[in-house]
Write a structure and sequence with these properties.
mainly alpha, two-stranded antiparallel ribbon, 19 helices, 2 strands, 1% strand
């Protein structure tokens, strides 16, 4: 673990002394593969690295996802290097965010996790404000800060009360079900609220489409890829603190998450903005994921962990594709990005691969994640099969709608010819969908 931390700070040092995208990308690839070989087959039980740090299969997979998404962020932002848009500051921001996420998934203490949880907002806020496209990025950044910080204050107050009542803040020993008896229902709702906003749960999601629309491609990729997973990860970790509350009111939250997922999926069908469509798609998928966690079953938790990794890679790839469209057409409108098949056949193949993963087509890991999640949700209530089936149908509908509308039709002449993909663009897209197909061959690492 110390070796991994040393490598992370080496990347940060490299960003200072020689801000070269190629060197930093190579170092990140080395770190990712070394960490995967060292801890990639961590069992479901905790592996204690020190008094404050530990690993299990969930945190290991999310740490690898954080490293991978950091690599993809840099590959997807080579235009910053070409246009000389403060590439050193960009690399430093990405690496600092990566280190914060790495520490977040290692923490065993709820207070230390809360600190890293909030610190992750700082480089994200800077990425949106510095490299965002339009003046509305100020409003989007403030929305994100206000929603997440206000909800997180309730988490801080709850932790103070738990400490006053001599309840351990350790997220390791909290997995004993009896700890749920010590958290009052009034505290439990505040404990969960911060993670519901971060995921986000329906009714607390208004900040996410705004942040995605105004963020640069790197900001959108890390938001969808990793930062939303912090909320899911935190909810799983504090689940036993709120055991009685969740057992009593899980029907309410399950209904909100599943019905909210259906509503956001319906919004996707009529959406014309590429980034807004992908953002609402993320909210719909996170609704199913929340339902799996709230089922409090083994299938629900395992399916949620698989879905975190699958959605992190798939949504990041979709945002990268939307940015590629935007770089050529200078528009995020689906109607302005038609006829790519005539202008750029190679791009259509990549679009099909990524969009098919979003609709959970085999052999993607999304299929395994959704099937296991459905088993967990149906074990909670058979009535939930109705919204789950609707979400599955709508997800396939808007994914095919997005693919067909962008690929076919007449190219808009006013934008001229499309630029060819660079090698690093092809490499970035390949690094999105190849893990989605490859991981399904070894699902044992999630169990």
């Amino acid at each position: 673990m110390l070796g991994t931390l040393f490598c992370c700070f080496s990347v940060l040092y490299m960003s200072f002394i020689r801000p070269n995208f190629v060197y930093v990308t190579q170092l990140l690839m080395v770190i990712t593969f070394v960490f995967s070989l060292k801890f990639g087959y961590c069992s479901g039980l905790y592996s204690f690295l020190s008094f404050s740090f530990s690993l299990d299969s969930m945190s290991t997979n999310l740490i690898i996802l954080s490293f991978w998404c950091s690599l993809l962020m840099i590959l997807g932002s080579f235009y910053i290097s070409k246009k000389k848009l403060d590439e050193m500051l960009f690399l430093i921001s990405v690496v600092i965010l990566m280190i914060i996420l790495f520490l977040s998934f290692l923490m065993t203490n709820l207070l230390m996790f809360y600190i890293c949880f909030e610190l992750s907002l700082v480089p994200t806020f800077y990425l949106i404000m510095k490299w965002g496209y339009q003046p509305e990025r100020i409003q989007a950044s403030l929305y994100m800060l206000l929603y997440t910080i206000c909800a997180s204050l309730s988490l801080l107050i709850t932790m103070v009360e738990m400490n006053n009542h001599l309840i351990s803040l350790s997220m390791v020993f909290s997995f004993e079900p009896k700890t749920g008896y010590y958290v009052h229902s009034g505290y439990a709702i505040f404990l969960m609220l911060a993670f519901f906003v971060k995921m986000p749960l329906y009714f607390t999601h208004l900040w996410l489409p705004k942040a995605h629309v105004e963020a640069p491609v790197a900001g959108s990729m890390v938001l969808a890829g990793v930062l939303l997973k912090l909320g899911s990860y935190g909810l799983i970790r504090v689940m036993s603190f709120c055991y009685l509350f969740m057992y009593k009111y899980s029907e309410v939250f399950m209904s909100v998450s599943l019905v909210g997922g259906v509503l956001t999926s319906m919004i996707c069908v009529v959406q014309s903005d590429l980034k807004s469509l992908i953002a609402y798609s993320s909210i719909g998928h996170m609704g199913v994921l929340t339902g799996g966690i709230l089922s409090m079953s083994w299938f629900g938790i395992v399916g949620a962990v698989i879905m975190m990794v699958a959605h992190g890679l798939c949504s990041s790839g979709m945002f990268f594709l939307s940015n590629t469209y935007y770089q050529n057409s200078k528009s995020r409108s689906v109607l302005m990005n038609k006829g790519v098949l005539h202008a750029f056949p190679f791009m259509v193949m990549f679009s099909f691969l990524v969009f098919s993963c979003n609709m959970s087509a085999p052999p993607s890991i999304n299929l395994a994640g959704e099937l296991i999640l459905c088993m967990g949700i149906l074990s909670f209530s058979y009535v939930s099969a109705i919204p789950v089936a609707l979400m599955t149908l709508l997800s396939g509908g808007y994914s095919m709608y997005l693919y067909v509308l962008s690929s076919h039709g007449n190219t808009v002449k006013m934008f001229g010819s499309w630029k060819q993909l660079k090698n690093y663009d092809i490499f970035c897209i390949a690094l999105h969908f190849l893990p989605i197909w490859g991981i399904i061959l070894n699902l044992k690492m999630y169990i």
